[in-house]
């Protein structure tokens, strides 16, 4: 059986997730091809792939979409003709996903067209700029059209499924499946836990500004906490808000591109990881932290509070938290470090480990992907 895994926009944190799914298919004897942005090539070079875009930002997404009819659409038709698309699994948003599903439906009408939908919607757009709202509305329009061609949609959490049902429950005709993110078990080298950390790619909703405020607050109040920030995002504006004394308290890992090993190394040396999003359905940072036996501190937002159990594997802040609230969380983590770390790892093993594949994907049993031995 031919399986195509699709990620046409470069999102480096997703590569470990969609290649894990592809490797599980391959482990059961299926032929797997990755339809990707060329930006993934260094990460996917050991796997069979077809680079259909160069998409890494909005500008390039637009260019790739405009160029699609000129060359790459024929390249995809050729690939689907030689190896019919029995399963096509789209892993992240791109305007060309619908063209891929449409061609798959034409050449393999009995095949499965699966969408892994990380974010089915937002309860509020109040934190978005005008540009952000326009982009969100455009993506929502594309999503509604894409769902018309889906045979299956995968949602990462119960909260995501609730949002999906509220938006698309009356119009969606395919099957729904709840499958949490699966993250490879590749923890960083364990060392002395020193830092309270933020990691990953940053935008307005991830509230890096609150983390910077916290570092200044701790320095101003003579608290001895140390911090780390690991990201490939441009954080120069936020770092300029640090006082010189606060900057000395921050361990910064900020290369133009950052790999999963670097993220895990920082997390393995962290007392806890802050995840301060709001208005999201889940975060990929949480399972990576838990994989590294590292507790997570989140705000009391439905999308994150469902992943973190207060006092068990992390700490749940009030929704409208203050820097003093964050310090209280850090103190709790410090006083209960060993037990929280143990429970964080238990949570990873019970929810996010690749060993959970048979539990989450047995609905694909007809395609013989449910055997836990592969």
Helix/strand structural class: alpha/beta
Question: What is the number of helices?
Answer: 16
Spell the H/E element sequence.
EHEHEHHEHEHEHEEHEHHEHEHEHEHHH
Give the N-terminus to C-terminus distance in angstroms.
16 Å
Largest sheet features: 7 strands, parallel
Radius of gyration: 21 Å
Biggest sheet, spatial arrangement of strands:
3-2-1-4-5-6-7
Helix content: 40-55%
**Total strand segments:** 13
Strand content: 15-25%
**Coarse shape:** globular
Parts with pLDDT < 50 across at least 5 consecutive residues: none
- Indicate the mean pLDDT: 90
Explain the overall architecture.
This protein is an alpha/beta fold. Helices cover 41% and strands 17% of the residues. It is built from 16 helices and 13 strands. The chain has helices at 15-27, 41-44, 58-67, 72-82, 97-107, 130-147, 158-168, 208-220, 236-239, 244-247, 260-268, 285-291, 302-305, 323-335, 337-352, 357-361, and strands at residues 2-7, 31-37, 49-53, 87-90, 112-116, 152-155, 175-178, 195-199, 226-230, 250-253, 270-275, 296-299, 314-317. The strands form two sheets. Strands 3-2-1-4-5-6-7 form a seven-stranded parallel β-sheet, with helices on both faces. Strands 10-9-8-11-12-13 form a six-stranded parallel β-sheet, sandwiched between helices. The longest helix is centred in the middle third of the chain and has 18 residues, at 130-147. The mean pLDDT is 90.
């Amino acid at each position: 059986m031919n399986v195509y895994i699709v990620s046409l926009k470069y999102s480096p944190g997703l590569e470990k997730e969609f290649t894990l799914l592809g490797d599980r298919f391959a482990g059961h004897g299926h032929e797997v091809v990755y339809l990707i942005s060329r930006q993934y090539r260094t990460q996917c070079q050991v796997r069979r792939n077809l680079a259909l875009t160069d998409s890494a930002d909005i500008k390039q997404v637009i260019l790739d979409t405009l160029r699609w009819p000129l060359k790459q659409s024929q390249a995809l038709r050729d690939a689907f003709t030689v190896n019919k698309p029995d399963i096509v699994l789209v892993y992240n948003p791109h305007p060309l996903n619908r063209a891929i599903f449409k061609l798959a439906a034409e050449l393999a009408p009995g095949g499965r067209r699966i969408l892994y939908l990380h974010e089915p919607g937002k309860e509020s757009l109040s934190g978005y700029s005008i540009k952000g709202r326009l982009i969100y509305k455009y993506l929502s329009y594309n999503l509604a059209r894409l769902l018309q061609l889906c045979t299956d949609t995968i949602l990462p959490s119960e909260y995501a499924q609730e949002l999906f049902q509220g938006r698309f429950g009356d119009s969606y005709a395919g099957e729904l499946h709840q499958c949490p993110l699966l993250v490879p078990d590749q923890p960083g080298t364990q060392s002395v836990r020193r830092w309270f950390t933020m990691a990953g790619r940053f935008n307005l909703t991830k509230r890096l500004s609150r983390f910077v405020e916290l570092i200044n607050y701790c320095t101003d109040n003579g608290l001895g906490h140390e911090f780390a920030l690991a990201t490939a995002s441009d954080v120069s504006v936020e770092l300029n808000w640090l006082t010189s004394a606060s900057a000395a308290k921050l361990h910064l890992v900020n290369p133009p591109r950052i790999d999963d090993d670097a993220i895990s190394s920082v997390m393995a040396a962290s007392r806890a990881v802050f995840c301060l999003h709001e208005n999201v359905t889940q975060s990929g940072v949480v399972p990576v932290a838990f994989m590294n036996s590292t507790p997570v501190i989140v705000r009391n937002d439905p999308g994150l509070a469902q992943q973190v159990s207060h006092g068990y594997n992390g700490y749940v802040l009030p929704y409208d938290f203050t820097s003093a609230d964050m310090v209280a969380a850090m103190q709790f983590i410090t006083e209960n470090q060993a037990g929280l770390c143990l429970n964080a790892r238990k949570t990873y093993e019970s929810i996010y480990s690749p060993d959970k594949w048979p539990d989450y994907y047995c609905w694909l049993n007809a395609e013989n992907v449910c055997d836990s031995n592969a």
